Amino acid sequence: MPLVAPRVIAVAGASTSGNAQGNTFLRQLEEAGFDGTVVVIHPSATSVDGYAAVPSLADVPETVDYAYVAVPSRSVPALIASGAGRVRFAQVISSGFGEGDGVGVDLANELLRVARETGTRIVGPNSLGTHSPRGGMSFVGGASAPDGTISVASQSGGLSVDMIRRGRSLGLDFRSVVSVGNALDVDPIELAEYYLADPGTTAIGLYLEYLPDGRRFVDLLRRSAGTKPIVVLKGGLTAQGNRAAASHTGAAATDERLWRGLARQFGITLVETMDEYLHSLLAFQDLARAPRANARDVVLLGNGGGVSVLAADQFARADLAVPPVSDELLRAAETIPFPPGASVLNPIDLPAGVFASEGGALCESLLRLVLERDAPGGIVVHLNLGAMLQGPVYLAGFRGFLTAALPMLREHRDQSLPVLVLNSDGSAEADELRRSLTSEAREWRIPVVTGFAGAIRILSTLYEHESRMLHTEATTSVG
Questions:
Q1: Residue 140 DSSP SS3
Q2: pLDDT of residue 290
Q3: How far from chain centre, in Å, is Cα 457?
Q4: Three-state DSSP class for 155?
Q5: How far apart are CA 23 and CA 46, in angstroms?
Q6: In this entry, which stretches build a coiled coil (predicted)?
Q7: Which residues of 278-294 are buried (b: 16+ CB within 10 A; e: fewer)?
């Protein structure tokens, strides 16, 4: 699709002063490594920021795959018309097309009429842009990243920026993120249909405030069942949120009961917060596997007795069991010379001094026993970064343990879904250590979160998805 992999880009809304929104986009193209043709649309200049400039889209010598349009709203229809059908996609950043107070509805209708006459597809208006690592383009500065497998369509530009920035810090590699704004023409459902057929996309994320076509969406969900997971962050589920959504995009949201019903019937992952959304996508990116009828059992292994108790409560409330380890494992663990203070029950509580013993080798041996003897459905390793910073011996022990644990967790992940929880005390030293350890874990594709809520979301998302997949397979085989 030229929208996410253009070769010729036109930019309308860049100035010779270098301060306009179009100039920012030109810089973002350079950062993202776009290597195609870029032409600036400017009424008088022949060059802007080192790029050739022409007066109108009609003067671009090649067919334009993607036009970035950030000019006053009243000028947009005429600009699109000047392309005379030689512009495939135009992403309209400009607002003023009926969102909020409804002023500009006539202008929106005029833009849609011009788009249909010329054959140009409109993304927006009131959008922010398209992020596509493989296309060498982004609307977020400093967001250059490898081509990933997660594709997103969002009805909020600001949340799209949050998805990209926060997603990158978690280790999410996006294939594309498209901000659709008011979705006058190209809407999230059409993009999701494209993602469903795209072999490079393994999971689909949607931020929706309203449904432009309920029948098409249900058909999409029906076709996606048993293939690619879909995570939906739905804005406007409550009456208050509904009013806010109407003021944002100019369209009415839909009833919460409808969405709950769709989630149950078609197996979409419906979430309510950005944290849940990103953690669910991270689960599908890093830990997707062939579905299996695992029990929802989890082993918690880390340092901190009180933390372990509170974590066990959190997991229980999420219907995730933290059962005692097996007698076989207890007998095998007796051969490990733990110093006083270690508890190998579940939660497995290993004080910082135990991690420091023998460079982390004792804890490594216990983790191996857990994975090989009990093979739980999930394994959550949680580490207190403040404890790691008590001294060089502690830091070396924790690091020695992680160096051995990460490949081990990856090796066993098809049986025991792994999550690493790094608890920071908020100090600069702890946060720097967290970033370093996160980077190491990302090399092994082990999800890293900063609290147990993220670990619960990751494991629950996958368990529920696998349960739905198994139910679908059983229903299909019976039929």
A1: coil
A2: 73
A3: 13
A4: coil
A5: 15
A6: none
A7: bbbbbbbbbbbeebeeb
Q: What pLDDT does 100 receive?
A: 66
**Residues linked to residue 52 through DSSP beta bridges, in sequence order:** 47
Taking the C-alpha atoms of residue 390 and residue 393, their distance in angstroms, rounded to an integer, is 8
For residues 463 and 292, the answer to whether their CB atoms sit within 8 Å is no
CA angle 154, 114, 24 (to 5 degrees): 50
CA 307 to chain centre: 28
Query: What tokens were used for 236?
Result: 């406007």
Report the candidate in 407, 332, 314, 424 with the shortest Cα–Cα distance to residue 369.
332
Q: Per-residue pLDDT averaged across 141-154, rounded?
A: 90
Encode pLDDT of 257-287 as tens digits: 889 888 988 989 999 999 999 999 999 999 9
Q: Cα separation of 42 and 59, whole Å? A: 11
Between 292 and 140, residue with greater pLDDT: 140
| Partners of 231 in beta bridges | 205, 269
| DSSP code for 297 | B
Which domains can be identified in the chain, with CATH numbers?
A: 1-128 (3.40.50.720), 145-288 (3.40.50.261), 290-469 (3.40.50.261)
Whether residue 136 contacts residue 32, with contact meaning beta carbons closer than 8 Å, is answered with: yes
Residues facing 426 on adjacent strands: none
Mean pLDDT of all residues in 440-447: 96
For residue 238, pLDDT over 80 is answered with no
Query: Tokens standing for 15?
Result: 């100035």
Region of residue 247 (phi > 0: left; psi between -120 and 50: alpha; otherwise: beta)? alpha
Between the alpha carbon of residue 422 and those of residues 107, 380, 414, the distances in Å are: 51, 11, 22
In sequence order, what are the residues at sequence separation of 6 or more whose Cβ sits closer than 8 angstroms to the Cβ of residue 58?
Answer: 82, 83, 84, 86
Token pair 């009131």 is at which residue?
126
CB 84 within 8 A of CB 58: yes
286 contacts 447 by C-beta, under 8 angstroms: yes
Give the list of residues 6+ apart from residue 327 with CB closer than 8 angstroms, or none: none
Question: Token match 């490079």: residue?
Answer: 200
> Residue 250's pLDDT band (boundaries 50, 70, 90)?
very low
Q: Locate all alpha helices (DSSP H) within 227-322, ordered by sequence.
A: 239-249, 256-266, 274-287, 305-317
Rg value, the chain, Cα:
26
Using CA atoms, how far apart are residues 397 and 352, in angstroms rounded to an integer?
Answer: 9
* DSSP codes joined into one string, 436-460: HHHHHHHHTT--EESSHHHHHHHHH
Query: What span, in angstroms and rounded, lies between the C-alpha atoms of 371 and 276?
Result: 27
For residue 41, which of 86, 101, 96 has the smallest C-alpha distance?
86
